[in-house]
Amino acid sequence: MGFYFAQLLTGLANASSLFLIACGLSIIFGVTRIVNFAHGSFYMVGAYLAYTLVTTLPAGIFGFWFSVIAAALIVGVVGLIIEVTILRRIYHAPELFQLVATFGVVLIFQDGVLAIWGAEDLLGPRAPGLDRAVRIMGEPIPEYDLALILIGPLVLAGIWLLFHRTRWGVLVRAATQDRDMVDALGVNQAWLFSGVFVLGAALAGLGGALQIPREAASLQMDLSVIGEAFVVVVIGGMGSVAGAFVAAVLISVLNAFAILIFPQISIVLPFVVMAVVLIVRPYGLFGKPGSEHGGAAEPEQPLRLMSSQGAMVLAALVFALALSPAVVSEFSSILLVDVMVATLFAVSLHFMMGLGGMVSFGHAAYFGVGAYAAAMTVSFLGFGMLPAMAAGPLAAAAAALFFGWFCVRLSGVYLAMLTLAAAQILWGVVFQWQDVTGGDDGILGVWPPEWASDDRVFFYVAFVACIGGIWLLRRVAHAPFGYGLRGIRDSELRAEALGMDVKLHQWMGFALAGAFAGLAGAVFAFSKGSVFPDALSIAQSVDGLMMVLLGGIHALAGPIFGAGVFVLIEDWVSRLDYWRFIFGAIILVVVLLAPDGVAGGVERLLRVLGLRRGDAA
Amino acid sequence: MLEVVNLTARYGRAQILNGVTLTLAQHEVVALLGRNGAGKTTTMKCIMGLVEKKAGEIRYDGRSLMKLPPHMICRVGLGYVPEERRIFPDLTVEENLEVGRRPPRADAPEWTEDHLFELFPNLAERRRNLGKQLSGGEQQMLTIARTLMGNPRAVLLDEPSEGIAPVIVEQMAKVITELKNEGLSVLLSEQNLHFARAVSDRAIIIEKGALRFEGSFAELDDRPEISQQYLAV
Ligand SMILES: Nc1ncnc2c1ncn2[C@@H]1O[C@H](COP(=O)(O)OP(=O)(O)OP(=O)(O)O)[C@@H](O)[C@H]1O
Ligand SMILES: [Mg+2]
Hints:
The complex is a heterodimer.
Chain A (H helix, E strand, L loop, with lengths): L1 H31 L6 H18 L4 H25 L11 H21 L15 E4 L2 E4 H23 L1 H11 L1 H6 L4 H23 L9 H16 L4 H21 L7 H12 L27 H20 L2 H26 L8 H16 L5 H23 L4 H21 L1 H4 L5 E2 L10 H24 L1 H11 L1 H6 L4 H27 L1 E2 L6 H14 L6 H16 L5 H15 L3 H12 L9
Antiparallel strand pairs in A: 1-2, 3-4
Helix pairs in contact in A: 1-5, 1-8, 1-9, 1-10, 2-3, 2-4, 2-8, 2-9, 3-8, 4-24, 5-6, 6-8, 9-10, 9-11, 11-16, 12-18, 13-18, 13-21, 13-22, 13-23, 14-15, 14-16, 14-21, 15-16, 15-21, 18-19, 18-21, 19-21, 22-23
Chain B lengths: L1 E10 L2 E11 L4 E5 L6 H8 L6 E7 L2 E2 L5 H6 L2 E4 L11 H8 L12 H7 L1 H5 L10 H13 L5 E5 L7 H17 L2 E6 L2 H7 L2 E6 L2 E6 L1 H6 L1 H7 L3
Parallel strand pairs in B: 3-8, 3-9, 6-7, 7-8
Antiparallel strand pairs in B: 1-2, 1-4, 4-5, 9-10
The complex binds adenosine-5'-triphosphate and magnesium ion.
Membrane topology (chain A): Multi-pass membrane protein
Family (chain A): Belongs to the binding-protein-dependent transport system permease family. LivHM subfamily.
GO biological process, one term (chain A): amino acid transport
């Protein structure tokens, strides 16, 4: 009995840390509608700063707690700088474009922390005065855990008072309900938003700082915590602080007991819980459907079709690509295969996001399923490359049909989060199911057959598969099915009134996008000769998102630009030291210069140069 | 005090205002009349800085408002009461008022919460209720009270009589008269000619985003074809 109680207390202590990170994320989203990928970075920086302060200041109770608070405050200031210099300029950009910016910040922080604190994990000292364990029902419980268990509810109470008992809090709550109205009542929201961002960042920093007596500060802290923090925010209902608390407790306590029964479940458990909650309650436990006046009020722009000039440029590019093996080095032709795979992946994601209005944070799931299906067809069934390349998209379509059925019942960020959950669950299965998937070791030896083993021949195989896939998707986009998807994106009600089966249509769109991602995955598997769980990772999903959003979600050519630019720049900078920093900085520059994406930026450049007549907008 | 000259505006490609011109003097109540979709709300939103694509000129005490964001326009002394009772549904009545509160101004009457609760006794009883728990008429009063908390000199009042019970419309008319007596100017958007006539000094009629008539109610009565053509009577 005592053992289980101890386990419960451990769960509650973890819940407090998780709550601190998640509530900041939730508050920021609730007010600014920004999905802040950089929140994990704030957490990480908080931990490192606290480590430095604690180890420099004289040891003692005062020194420790001063360090923790100071670290949180410094992170708050860092948040302020980011908000004022970057985010404030792009609140009016298309929804989710801010996400690209926060991703750039993640990259910059990763290398910034590496440069300042080095690659070694740093374990802080125990908290003075709380460094022993007390026996509760015969089990030793760290005193520090008990302190954390207290801190969580205290912070919750503090936030509640701030939001309900101060004018600032009332204004913030009003702004989450109707931004324009708050503006018209004389409130400068710019500073309201900054304040909220600072508060959220400081809370994440506090979470990180409080973690140092329990866990070493490491360079992986940021991304390892962000997934779970998102889950907590979504389960609780985005924007709900109390919801975040309940969800953090739910996840942490469930986890504390689940690992006793089935240790492998630990990495996927949060995502399974999120999936279940979202299926039952589409807006989380305490969430509400977004208010009509809440978000950036601008109506969705229509999707731009390509001008004849653009189409000609594209045709010329494809033609040049087809001839490229004759002139470029073998190395470059491998790189070009990477570009084509990434482009097909991005176009398939754009198909569901841009055309279908269904944002996915987990598109890598179908890429990975396609890659694994192809690899397994070769290594287990002994089939050749072509059947394997057919198996990839089929398996991905099957997975997309399964998960899509649940996802299309949601919308907006909740839909995106459920796709993320689906991807994480699949990733967990692949990662843990050693016997079938090889787990971490992946599947090796997935090479093309003799006739296609030359890189140049394989280039054409990839060319046919990828360019063919992209062409097919574009055909669908211009077919009645594609118009239907766009109609639903623009107005679900109107589409329904016209007698369309909206959910079925979206479901099919989801499956189609998954199938083509699977095709990209299959080509990928053969081009690398192996598949690892990374193919389904959050990082792979985020790469796809970045390509689509950087390219410009409102243009059909967007993902093509985005993928090309992304892969080429990544290939170029990844040979440099601190390439993440450079890459992140490039992303931020693009975001600030072209808030409508690269495609929009190129178009504006052409217009400025007088090469294209713009409409007067 | 408020001058709008040749205002044009559009949403995306659709041109909604095609040159609206109007003035609002101190202590004056002007009715902005027109059918559904005539552009009354859009005119008010433009004045308040809530429509981005606009051209022409909007001046307040000689100062251009064209480039100012909504919160700066509010701070010069213009209050905006939107149509459709856009209260904050999850805030209490008191909190809704708090959002509107601004420091007192030398050139405008000062409103306190107590004074407003006297003017709107229904709200006083429900001060701790959430906005969404109020009836339609109570919500309409709350939007007005909330704007008055900002101590404006002039108020843009968008269809206050829309969709509320006749008793409350009467109460609304009293409130507008009270505002005028306190020294405020009111630009009142209306479809209800009788209500507008009861409280306003003169009328402006727009249709398809352009000015069709300007003058006193007596002049309007002399030309029945105007009301026939541009108003739903
Ligand atoms: N956000 C918007 N996007 C596109 N068109 C709009 C938008 N808001 C209003 N319109 C259009 O602008 C025109 C004028 O609308 P407005 O709301 O200004 O009319 P109104 O005179 O206030 O009408 P009502 O008496 O019904 O309130 C209408 O045709 C309307 O359809
Ligand atoms: Mg109107």
